[in-house]
Amino acid sequence: MKEHGFWRLGGKLYLAALVVFTMLPMVWMVITSLKTQFAALQYPPEWIPRNPTLDQYWLLLSPANAVGREFLRYLFNSVWVSAASTVLGVAVAVPAAYAFSRFRFPGRNLLFYSVLLRNMFPAVVFLMPLFIMMRWLGLVNTQASLILTYLTFGLPLSIWLLKGFYDNIPVQLEQAARIDGASRFQAFLLIVMPLSAPGITATAIYSFIMAWNEYVYALTFLNDKDRLTLPVGLQRFFTEYATNWPGLMAASFIMSVPVVALFLVLQKYFVRALTDGAVKS
Amino acid sequence: MAQVRLGNIVKHYGDSIAVDDVSLTVEDGEFVALVGPSGCGKTTTLNLVAGLLELTGGTIHIGDRQVNELDPKDRDIAMVFQNYALYPNKTVYANLAFPLQMRKTAKADIDRKVRAAAASLDITHLLQRRPRELSGGQQQRVALGRALVRDPKVFLMDEPLSNLDAKLRVQMRAELKRFHQDLKATIIYVTHDQLEAVTMADRMAVMNHGVLQQYDTPEVVFNAPLNLFVAGFVGSPAMNLFPAEVADGGASLLGPEGWRLTLSERNAARARRATGGVILGARHSMIGLHGEPATDRIPGRVYTVEPTGDITFVHVRIAAANVIASVGPDIRLRADDAVWLSFDQNKLHLFDVASGQALRD
Hints:
The structure holds 2 protein chains of 2 kinds. By secondary structure, chain A is mostly helical. Chain A is 77% helix and 0% strand.
């Protein structure tokens, strides 16, 4: 009993240390974003800002000034690129996963495993080949190049996760629907789709976050200031002007809000998506 | 309701043949059981009728219409699945209403029909529940309700009782049979359980390896199996089958264990038709057990005794062969007792070893 208590305590301390380790940078980010520029550079640092201010947030989110206009442009670009690659990703992944799960066709296994091939290499390996391909396609310096690229990154996992979902939906449900008067497509739309909604939500949010955070490709493919996404935009934004730390931190905080919010929704579905596919009930 | 006609239907999966040239007619209002061991093609046959699988060859008629090319939704059929296939995200009410909605029935009509179906199956109090909140028996009723709410031409049932526990299965068996009698419904019912087929069906189609073995009333299938497979499959415990040689120009049979059995004139005539040896078939109830030897009694030794209450099964060894006979509960036998078996010549079955077919008059 005593030993048990010791291990429990030890475990909790370990977890607490981990939480501090992961949370501290974020806490520091929020604290700094609330400081004045002067206070941000003080040493020893102010742990709790003496004169907290939301100035940086007003600056970034107001279209009235140049900085705000630029930031909002990047934000909009990021939303557009992430949303477009997510919507397209789901539109491709859903029928692909469904086909892998339900139909037997020649080359099915080969195709299914080749879907994973992309994930066996670090993303940077594809940077140059993709860049060259984008140049052939005349897509360099367009957001379409990023949307296409993110699509290829998100699809493998989306297809695998969704296939697990569809595998667990008994085929008899569709058969019953088809006998009850539904066409094959209606059976999919009215019976299978609602049942796979958690899986679709999970994969959609996953794709969105991945596209939202991506930096290297965005840096390489885009030049035009007006087309930059947030991660690259932020970096340029603040090296161009003097290094405004509170401003950078405020911008980073705004950027992380959608990710955190989506992840809160995601975690429930994501765990279900992973386990549903893995364990036959 | 309608007649269903299968004309030489064939289904191949790549190189393997799942259904091999099956022809049968299910009359209007008839309850037909497709029965056989797993992998015999019975479920494939049902799915072909439903339109869930495509025919490799042959024709299927429902009523006057050839339905080969029709989608399941256009065949005017209803199906009850082994796992019920209730829509898990819909309430019982919505499950029952779904087939009507799909056929664009007016809302008031849907409500009326759903409630009527629910009332007839005694599930009105469950209408607002979801399938996972129901017991197996209740799910079974909802599945049945969803099938009958639309008044289809044919009911297809794929092992609908096999997920229920034994007691509930007996109850639902009776309810299904009553359901058939009340509705005068045409039903095609797939089962691996020959007892379900024998107890419920007007006619049963016994299948093996994709081939229709016999299609007749349970009584005929039980009393006059056409071949060795049907003889061994239908009836529990299975029919006793043992090989013998035809001797004395057909007048008697000679067992490999050394016994000799004089045949009645009718059986002798049958035995003479055999191309080589014969297989003697006798159900447990047609075998008499005696304490003394006599002519035409085969000596054996009791292997074990299984009392079931109202009937006692006795396993008897004749050399290496095992035979199951039955006696009344008041007859006491013990393992290793010597016994002598006699046969009811009028109920004896004879099969040709070479072809496996029954030797007929």
